[in-house]
């Protein structure tokens, strides 16, 4: 340790380091599951409940006819849950760590990032459970399309981090942000093709030239449809027994998804610049406003 | 200006404004409450320029609300100044207002690792330091318990243990030694002493002025957000006592035009090296220095020196007249009061001086010096007087 210079020590204190991020995520996990017997298993409760409810509503009541509805739902829902969980937690990340912000000098950017990291840990574990279920039920999910998961997760991460910075910074000054984000996420959920097949909105939207494109200006729509293409991997289905085969996913090929992800990446990148700028601008007042 | 590399912290033209209207944090209040406006702006710091050299121990003193805690937070990088700049060279570890930012739900051990990580240490580094932190905090039996069950004393012990063990270049401490028992306070002081020897920079806020005098090599006095004195700790505490109105002589300060009391200097013999700790019975020379213009010099009839003990109680009085050594002409006067032996009265003493016209005339100027001297009892720690005595078994017991 003696080999470090004062300048190096100062830098270690002002930059976000991976180890610090991991430490904060670990702290949040510990605080959340401390004293609970089932621990992480609780994080599976939410997707399982949604699975039960949506399966009943869409398979039994509306008879949507989507085959393997559970796999279809989960392939889009898990990444959405990670996104919405990140945002909700990020909004409260600075306010919730007021004790640290007011007492310790450390890189404040790590706070919204740790909210994203916390959600990412749950996402990975839930994805693991999904893989186990698919293996056990011999669902064939291994195909070249699976590679689409990589760019989809990259864009999702970028977009989530960008918005997390924005809501975390704004919430310190405007505490309404947190409540607004909660409401927004409820509405936003339905703008994504998670429980309904995206093909069902394609028809109505395509009638107005720009509406279909506008639908994908929401980077999460691109991410979710890509995840469905990659994991669920059944582009077509027959909604009516014995009827004609119809498109279930956004597109049977791959390039459509890469295009949507590219647009999403550009939007996310711009938002990330905005988020970083906003966060840096406001973080000087954090200790004062808390 | 000193060389960059020799400075630990440099603050240039730092001002900090607090807006009371900031309490309006919801959007609605913000939109509707705009009218309340800037009337409640409060400048906690005004144009503060401070250079903290590497390896210095600096005290930050001032009355409540003088801005010292705010300055400490600005220097720590926790608050951003409204204007001005702060440059910091090295790792800062701070212990502000009895808190280290611990999470109550986590165990002491987890908090140590988290805190060290926030301050820039790797897990490996922290693991190496952990035994020392644990030992210093004396919390071996409680370290796995959630911090929320800790007493305030335990909390501070752990906070201080982390703050001093994370290999900081700069340690910022806010009034932390006031809590905890005496044994721990001594331990903290020993650690500060060790830091001084290792050449680390220490900046601390305290109301314990004697502590500031004892361990600081420099002190800064803040008053209403401005630096009013920056230099010798004894002068600094004296300045602050003056600002607080403590220890002022009866009749208070009288400033005469063309007359200024410069300093009082204590030594064992006239012209000897300055000292401030004596034993009862030792010789003491007090040198009073003042600048006098021609007008005041012509009027001057008697210089009175009052030596005051605890609480400003006058203990004894000494006078000088033109017959007994008061100079005649204008200029810089230096008058020595020589005591062949100090009375065996223990404690801290301060000196007030006044120059008056002859024959009980009006006071031209009066001043209480911040610098005092201490009389120690050679092993006797309590009591006012050192009294000679003999001791032995009683005759009946023989």
The rounded Rg of chain B comes to: 26 Å
Distance N terminus to C terminus of chain B?
74 Å
Extended strand count of chain A:
2
Count of distinct strands of chain B: 17
List low-confidence stretches of chain B.
Answer: 34-38, 247-251
Q: How many helices of chain A does DSSP assign?
A: 14
Report the mean per-residue pLDDT of chain A as an integer.
89
The spatial strand order of the largest sheet of chain A comes to 1-2
Global geometry of chain B: globular
Question: What summary fits the major beta sheet of chain B?
Answer: 6 strands, mixed
The helix/strand order of chain B is EHEEHEEHHHEHEHEEHEEEHEEEEE
Q: Count up the helices of chain B.
A: 9
Alpha carbon gap, first and last residue of chain A: 35 Å
CATH superfamily of the largest domain in chain B: P-loop containing nucleotide triphosphate hydrolases
Strand and helix order of chain A: HHHHHHHHHHHHEEHH
Proportion of residues in helical segments of chain B: 10-25%
Secondary structure elements and their pairing?
The complex is a heterodimer of chains A (290) and B (398).
Chain A: H1 6-14, H2 18-33, H3 45-61, H4 69-91, H5 93-96, H6 98-103, H7 110-136, H8 149-173, H9 176-191, H10 198-206, H11 211-215, H12 219-232, E1 236-237, E2 246-247, H13 255-283, H14 286-289
Antiparallel strand pairs in A: 1-2
Helix pairs in contact in A: 2-7, 3-4, 4-7, 4-8, 4-9, 4-12, 7-8, 8-12, 8-13, 12-13
Chain B: E1 7-19, H1 27-32, E2 41-53, E3 57-62, H2 68-76, E4 83-88, E5 92-95, H3 108-118, H4 123-137, H5 152-165, E6 170-174, H6 182-197, E7 201-205, H7 209-215, E8 218-223, E9 226-231, H8 233-244, E10 259-267, E11 277-279, E12 284-292, H9 294-299, E13 300-308, E14 314-320, E15 331-339, E16 347-357, E17 363-376
Parallel strand pairs in B: 3-7, 3-8, 5-6, 6-7, 11-17
Antiparallel strand pairs in B: 1-2, 1-4, 8-9, 10-12, 12-15, 13-14, 13-16, 16-17
Helix pairs in contact in B: 3-4, 3-5, 4-5
